[in-house]
Amino acid sequence: MVNEEEIIKVAKLMKIDLEDHGEHVGRVKKMLEYFDILDQIDLSSEEITSQEKLLAELRKDEFIPHDKKLIESLKNFREHYVRAPKMN
Amino acid sequence: MNLNTSILQYIEDVKSGSFTVEEFISATIDRIKMVDGNVHAYLSLNDSAINDAKLIDKKISSNEKVGKCYGFPISIKDNICITGTKTTCASKILENFVAPYTATVVNRLNDEDAVITGKTNLDEFAMGLTTEFSAYGATKNPWNIDYVPGGSSGGSAASVAANECLASLGSDTGGSVRNPASFCSVVGLKPTYGLISRYGLISYANSIEQIGPMTKTVKDNAFLLNIIAGQDSNDDTTIDNKNPDYLNEIEKGIEGKKIGIIKEMTTADGLSQEVSTATKESIQDFEGLGASCEEVSLPTIPYTVAAYYTITSTEAGSNLARYDNIRYGYEMESEGYEYNSYISKSRTKFGPEVTRRIILGGFVPSAGHAGKYFLKALKVKSKLISEINTAFEKYDYLIAPTAPVQPFRFGEKIDDPVTLMLLDYNTVTANLTGKPAISVPYSVINGLPIGMQIIANSLEEKSLFQAAYALETKTTIPEVPL
Q1: Would you say residue B222 lies in a domain?
Q2: Is the pLDDT of residue A87 over 80?
Q3: ipTM (interface pTM)
């Protein structure tokens, strides 16, 4: 059973301010409780499969010039840098 | 002018000189101005649509080469980028975001002279099934504006159903094209994963989402797929479809084909009586068309909704980390904030559903919980793929109603997250397995539409359209009462 403290801890890590979003914790808990259905299926013989692609099949990792300097469209762009809030 | 026409009929009419592109686009914009106050399908309109139409008329009159679309009007879901236009994802956090590049699908439409009418409403970041989670207000169902249009591509579906364009592009992560197509009585395709480029589609759950065409007819859908499908060097997940003509042989029929009726989707508790009855009638229609139908079981289906939400929330949690108000965001003074608290505060602009998915997306793959949720979800996906591949060794198509219920009133289900999630019950299988699936308008009961879903094997869209067209010939859908 998931407890609300665990959800609040994860929300903080995901940078969700629960002062404004506290009402969501109960609803997230309800969704997680529904996910418990995954405990009822036998997956013991299942492997996780994934699609594979060779590096050679991928687009070349090369610089493609863009007609605009996108960084200049950032609202906190200051001549040579982007201003961000200070870190403690 | 009759705006309730198909793309193919429109092209014939423009070619024969029955009307000009400008006349049709002008009439379409007049229609939008007349009905969209009630429907709210659009979030923004293309101010240059008339000019675009005039340029195409000029090409036609001067015998220049004209693209295959001949200027038919098409709307685009507002999570698909077009250079220089706002792309909001129906979120306050992207309220003023202007896309710096154009999605491949839009480039392909422009190259073939389609006219973009505008950007359509959706559930914020495509997370939802009703458009009630749009930050700019819900779209109304043109069949009855007291009812939801489905979602998340509800604006796209409503714009087509309300004759505010001839087609639209939506995106489908767990049914977001097919569900609103069913609720608004239009044709909606979720193609094979990789068939259509996602370059320029704002990411939600990359491993399973696809852009899909929404149209009034099955033939129009095939026509549109011909234009937008195919490999794209900007999206390495696209696959070579060998460029088949999806319209060619679309009337071939389904005589002798084998159809599996998915047991878990046609006997579930949540299936309404009306949808159940319509499903039985559609089976009779398929048999009348010469196909043989029998029940098939995919036992993993009851676990797919939980697996789907686990996987998509995980990917959403990662994809939405970029909205930190430094790289993307809105005006908010940073003075007085510490780095993390600034980001947290700025992210309060996310709406309720997106916020919940981000929390879920952090929880289910986290250390201590991944084994219970995320890794199991991936195994459910693998098991489901094995089951459906086995089914396609025997059957040409699998069928089920697109949604277990008809459209419902606004507010009716929004307070219960599990009820909302279960609306995806019949659609997520195609996304988790990467198979193509189409919703075909089947009937209208008590004034509200019901769509039937046909699923085919990977890259079998040509065959899928043949079945969808065959079913369409058996239906008589009344005109939308708007």
Answers
A1: yes
A2: no
A3: 0.93
User: Among B150, B182, B181, B149, which residue's Cα sits nearest to residue B168?
Assistant: B181
Residue corresponding to tokens 């092209």:
B11
Which of the following is catalytic: B91, B134, B168, B176?
Answer: B176
The answer to whether residue B176 sits within a structural domain is yes
Interface residue of B363, B419, B428 to substitute, partner A, most A CBs within 10 Å: B363
Q: What is the pLDDT of residues B35-49, one digit of tens each?
A: 999 999 999 999 999
| Interchain contact, B339 vs A20, CB within 8 Å | no
The pTM of the whole model exceeds 0.95: yes
Q: Is B171 a catalytic residue?
A: no
Please write the tens of the pLDDT for every residue from B80-91: 999 999 999 999
Six token digits for residue B289? 């068309």
Residue tagged 């009306």 (tokens):
B274
**Contact: B358, A28; criterion CB under 8 Å:** no
Q: Which residues of B touch A2 (CB under 8 A)?
A: 363
Residue of A nearest to B360 (CA): A28
The reply to whether residue B340 touches residue A70, judged by beta carbons under 8 angstroms, is no
Give the other-Cβ count within 10 Å of B2's Cβ. Answer: 11
Residue B194: give the domain boundaries.
7-251+463-472
Q: What pLDDT, in 10s, does the model give residues B153-183?
A: 999 999 999 999 999 999 999 999 999 999 9
CB contact under 8 A, B339 and A27: no
Name the residue among A13, A27, A85 with its Cβ closest to that of B362. Answer: A13
Residue B149 resides in a domain: yes
* Contact between residue B191 and residue B461 where contact means Cβ atoms under 8 Å apart: yes
pLDDT in tens, A23-51: 789 999 999 999 999 999 999 999 998 88
Per the prediction, chain B carries an average pLDDT of: 96
Residue given tokens 């686990």 in the structure block: B310
Please name the residue that has the structure tokens 């099934």.
B129
